[in-house]
Specification:
globular, two-stranded antiparallel sheet, alpha+beta
Length: 489
């Protein structure tokens, strides 16, 4: 809910109060988490606000808290909330709604599974390292029982490490993975390699208690988990003073992006010696919607397939604290901009822009309906079921703002996107010539070129020359070579 730049933030207090299920606070994008915590604690009548903190919690349809990230005191809950998927925000605004109502994530078109994930802010008591130590100084049997449902499996039934199989071949390997997956155990080791089978739903195995449980533990002490891989890399880096690499690979829809997020969450928790997220982690995660909009597209097998590779480098100080991070992209599928197969789409950002731009923006950017663009109408697929692309556009702009793109940079970027779409509408005709070697082309619809030149702020003559000819340096001389019809078709 938003009014004059003010938002309503609902905070669920859970077992901390018998009187309230949740309390609402009016806040702006500049309101810090500690201010909201102070307000909530005062409403509840608790003595010391410094004993509590705010957490972003993701839950599933049956009320289980699957993932949690504690906010630092100076983070902005409103800015974070604006990055949530639309259904999460809508459900959160319904008073008396169940703890975590489900929604369907964009999944493979051939899959009938849905991912119930619901975002909430919850009030939590702060946990110190001493409290963590006391809580987890348990008998191994307690830990075994605690993990039984999702991770632990007796060795006489299944093997958490495929290297332990008495008869290792393709059939026994796949059967062991299938048996574990059916039992809800999505992780399996192959020595130092972790196999993750995407369940297309959340399992409640990523809470802070799991983060703490896997800290500084030997890999074979606990069941397979992505946190164990992160913990091993982190402590090996500190011990040996050497760079560590984690490679995440898999086919489209296998869960690579989500696995990356879990790794970042755990690595940051390790560096903070607790459960707080850091500004570095939040900046990387805030860049997610930007990278997704410009680098993801619908394919025949996945409605949200990443069409690029991503390299994330997290730098640490000698004391193990996060110093900074670099995100690099590579191998973007550039050909998708010009053509797509049947039932596939171009990159999400084009559809977000066309659906979410205001009337004034559409006029300023010379935007048209999707079916009027050659770069978008080849496959006959313009929309995604269950996706509000107008809302995704506003979410994209908020994410761009959080990673440093101001309104002026955003406007220039959207102008370039409009020009790219219009370039696909430029048509050519052969220019008649008496000599074969003088064959060249002319622009058939100069009005489109005129629109593009106005958007890019270049002269029409310069743009026309760039579209119909190329320059090459030969023996120190600059030659102008005209394109032929097959080259521009």
């Amino acid at each position: 809910m938003e009014e004059n730049g003010r938002h309503i933030v609902r905070v669920y207090v859970g077992a901390l109060s018998q009187e309230y299920e949740a309390l609402s606070v009016e806040a702006s994008k500049h309101t810090a988490a500690e201010e909201i915590v102070t307000c909530i604690v005062q409403k509840l009548g608790f003595p010391n606000p410094h004993d509590y903190e705010l957490a972003e919690v993701i839950g599933n349809a049956v009320g289980q808290e699957c993932k949690e990230r504690r906010l630092s005191p100076f983070e902005s809950p409103v800015a974070l909330k604006l990055l949530w998927p639309k259904c999460s925000e809508t459900a959160d605004s319904l008073l008396g709604s169940p703890p975590f109502p489900s929604r369907s994530r964009r999944t493979s078109s051939s899959s009938t599974s849905s991912v119930p994930d619901q975002y909430r802010f919850c009030l939590r008591e702060k946990l110190t390292d001493s409290l963590w130590s006391e809580s987890f100084a348990m008998d191994p049997q307690v830990i075994k029982d605690y993990f039984y449902r999702f991770l632990y499996q007796p060795a006489d039934k299944e093997y958490p490490d495929l290297c332990q199989l008495p008869d290792l071949n393709e059939e026994t390997l796949l059967e062991n993975l299938r048996s574990r997956f059916v039992g809800g155990h999505i992780y399996t080791y192959v020595g130092s390699i972790l196999i993750a089978v995407n369940p297309f739903k959340f399992h409640p195995i990523y809470n802070p208690k799991y983060v703490k449980l896997y800290q500084n533990r030997r890999r074979e002490e606990l069941p397979p988990h992505i946190f164990a891989i992160a913990d091993s890399a982190y402590h090996t880096m500190l011990k040996e003073k050497r760079n560590q690499s984690i490679v995440i690979s898999g086919e489209s829809g296998s869960g690579k992006t989500e696995t990356t997020n879990f790794l970042l969450h755990h690595l940051t928790a390790l560096s903070q010696k607790g459960t707080h997220g850091s500004g570095v982690e939040q900046t990387i995660l805030s860049a997610g919607p930007v990278l997704e909009a410009f680098g993801n597209a619908k394919t025949a097998h996945n409605n949200n397939s990443s069409r690029f590779g991503k390299f994330i480098q997290v730098s640490y100080r000698e004391n193990g604290m996060v110093h900074g991070a670099i995100v690099q992209k590579y191998l973007l599928e550039k050909s998708r901009i010009c053509c797509q197969a049947k039932n596939e789409r171009n990159y999400h950002v084009f559809y977000y822009l066309l659906a979410g731009a205001s009337e004034s923006e559409k006029s300023l950017l010379a935007l048209l309906p999707p079916y009027k663009y050659h770069y978008l109408n080849q496959s006959g697929c313009y929309t995604l079921e269950g996706v509000d692309e107008s809302y995704e556009f506003s979410r994209l702009k908020q994410s761009m703002e959080m990673v440093g793109f101001g309104s002026d940079k955003q406007r220039k970027l959207f102008t370039v996107l409009s020009a790219v779409l219009l370039l696909g509408n430029v048509e050519f005709v052969p220019k008649k010539s008496s000599y074969h070697h003088d064959e060249s082309v002319l622009v058939k619809n100069p009005d489109v070129v005129r629109q593009i030149s106005a958007l890019l702020r270049v002269t029409e003559e310069t743009l026309t020359a760039a579209l119909t000819s190329k320059r090459a340096r030969v023996s120190g001389e600059m030659l102008v070579i005209n394109y032929r019809m097959p080259e521009v078709s």
